[in-house]
Amino acid sequence: MATTRYQNSDVRRQVGSPRPKGRAAAQTDSSDASVPSFNPAAIREFTPSFDVASTATPSNGTTAHEAAVAYDPFSMQTVGQSLPTTPFNPYADDQAALGAGAGFFPSQNAYQTPLQPLQHHLYSTWGPKPTNLKPYERTTSDFFIPEDVRIDLTKKNEAANQVMPNSQLPQLDNYHSLVPLDTTHRKNASIFGYNSWVYKAKATRTGTVVCLRRLQDFRLSNEHAIRSVKEWRRIVSANVVQTHDAFTTRMFGDSSLVFVQDFHPLSQTLAEAHLATSSHGGRFAQKNPIQESVLWSYITQIAAALKVIHGKDLAARCIDVTKIILTDARANRIRLGACSILDVVHYEARRPVAELQQEDFINFGRVILSLATNTHPSNLNNINGSIEQLSRVYSVELRDTVLWLLSPQQPPAQKGIEEFMRGIALHAFAQLDVEEQSRDADKSHLSTALENGRQFRLMLKLAAINERHELSGDPNWSENGERYLLKLFRDYCFHQVDADGNPVLDVYHMITCLGKLEAGSEEKVCLTSRDEQTSFVVSYKELKKQLGSAFGDLQKASKQAKGL
Ligand SMILES: Nc1ncnc2c1ncn2[C@@H]1O[C@H](COP(=O)(O)OP(=O)(O)OP(=O)(O)O)[C@@H](O)[C@H]1O
């Protein structure tokens, strides 16, 4: 079998056969000692660490920047080449071409890192790891977002995209595709004084999914009432559902007041999550006793919300287990869900904010007492008895905290949220730690998604080139020149077969090949034609250039067709 070292010339001529046929076969260049031999095992449970493959990293000073992909997902041109002074682009293919003044650093020569060049073809290995694996062991799932996170996000996306066929709900002026979120027909008018309904809807102008809370049969008597919502737009807190707007409408067949809020898919109220109605008499029965650490987490988050709200001279007014939503059950993330509503509804009977803020503390205490004793707030008639019940299960500190919240101050003395926060600081730090750990895990997942995104862009380019029917009237474009090698690379990467011609589906091999191509590694690969008559030894770096140039042809033709 002839082995041809590829020289950037017309490979079609070197192949010597009009159109290669037959089974794809390819092998890694065995003359390159740095290349790990490819073991065509099926998807491995454990794959060796990429540290093993790292022996094959560029040795000729390929810099981090050379090895990275252009930021524009499809741009194969050096970004900013035509600009006189170009900002440093860490993703550019060729930093040298940017010119001396283009770098973030005084000149490219001055940029000499004492570190090894980054190995962009390797998946990063930072972030929390399963502890039962050796440091060099990785599972196939390591390359993707963890299953539980994927399921959670997918379910949330599904919930956000859910539609209701044959819906009788009206289309509003600025919102359409309403889907009711109330899971029960039981309506409780005691909180707002009106029956309320919650819908998911799509904003006509922006296409974003929002949550609409509708108060049925509400008659607006004062135009200024609705403007008080403006104040709530200023409240930006991780523990408050953001309110955007409020309007009245007759589209539901009555006079309704509607609040527009952020939509948090698959959220549950604290009552739904922790208190369950029994089938008889509407009494609430506990699902599982709530751990004390969860209660402290809730306390810390409600306090954080009140800090922002009271800090803007507003009062939450609606702190209730049925109006606080759990937006991420795994992380115990909660948000106050119905602030702003009572400011509009009770506009005529306005009361001093300081007084309402003091009431917030009492409602806050009732929420915690209700959760700790598994009693619906409307049944919390004997506070002392409930406190006693709480102290039988939970710590003295929790009991004292709830007592502090529930006991009214003798005027002119007033409770302050900062004073309360100082008192629970230890628990707030515990919550902070949980949040930081969860952020670490999310960052780690994000880095996996980043790597996958890079490879996905590469696959889009390959797919756009391989087997293209014709380009600019040339029916053989995708089979000629550099495109032919890209086709063989596609075979090498994805169409591996064993000695009997059976497919070898080695995810590790596919990911590694794409990673090296994406990084433009100096490592060489031996690509064999389908008829097994010709082989080409070519580096990933050259393949990457060829991919760029072939994709550039496509872009040029596409732009010409559009007259650009
Ligand atoms: N901003 C939001 N994003 C997503 N879902 C929400 C949002 N606000 C509320 N929900 C969900 O809508 C459903 C109904 O909420 P609602 O406040 O009406 O509770 P409820 O228990 O039905 O109270 P009530 O008896 O007062 O009507 C709940 O499952 C809640 O989790």
UniProtKB/TrEMBL annotation:
UniProt GO cellular component terms: P-body; PAN complex
Coiled coil: 426-464
Localization of this protein: Cytoplasm
Gene Ontology molecular functions: ATP binding; poly(A) binding; zinc ion binding
Protein's GO biological process: mRNA processing; nuclear-transcribed mRNA poly(A) tail shortening
Pan3 C-terminal knob domain location: 417-554
Region of interest (Knob domain), residue spans: 465-564
Region (Disordered): 1-38
Keywords associated with the record: ATP-binding, Coiled coil, Cytoplasm, Metal-binding, mRNA processing, Nucleotide-binding, Zinc, Zinc-finger
Binding-site residues, ATP: 213, 262-269, 322-323
Residue ranges, compositional bias (Polar residues): 27-37
Keyword Metal-binding belongs to the record: yes
Pfam assignment, any one: Pan3_CK
Keyword Coiled coil among UniProt keywords: yes
Family: Belongs to the protein kinase superfamily. PAN3 family.
SUBUNIT field: Homodimer. Forms a heterotrimer with a catalytic subunit PAN2 to form the poly(A)-nuclease (PAN) deadenylation complex. Interacts (via PAM-2 motif) with poly(A)-binding protein PAB1 (via PABC domain), conferring substrate specificity of the enzyme complex.
Functional note: Regulatory subunit of the poly(A)-nuclease (PAN) deadenylation complex, one of two cytoplasmic mRNA deadenylases involved in mRNA turnover. PAN specifically shortens poly(A) tails of RNA and the activity is stimulated by poly(A)-binding protein PAB1. PAN deadenylation is followed by rapid degradation of the shortened mRNA tails by the CCR4-NOT complex. Deadenylated mRNAs are then degraded by two alternative mechanisms, namely exosome-mediated 3'-5' exonucleolytic degradation, or deadenlyation-dependent mRNA decaping and subsequent 5'-3' exonucleolytic degradation by XRN1.
Listed PANTHER family: DEADENYLATION COMPLEX SUBUNIT PAN3 (PTHR12272), PAN2-PAN3 DEADENYLATION COMPLEX SUBUNIT PAN3 (PTHR12272:SF11)
Domain statement: The N-terminal zinc finger binds to poly(A) RNA. Contains a pseudokinase domain. The protein kinase domain is predicted to be catalytically inactive because some of the residues important for catalytic activity are substituted and it lacks the equivalent of the binding site for a peptide substrate. However, it has retained an ATP-binding site and ATP-binding is required for mRNA degradation, stimulating the activity of the PAN2 nuclease in vitro.
UniProt name for this protein: PAN2-PAN3 deadenylation complex subunit PAN3
Organism name: Emericellopsis cladophorae
Gene (name only): PAN3
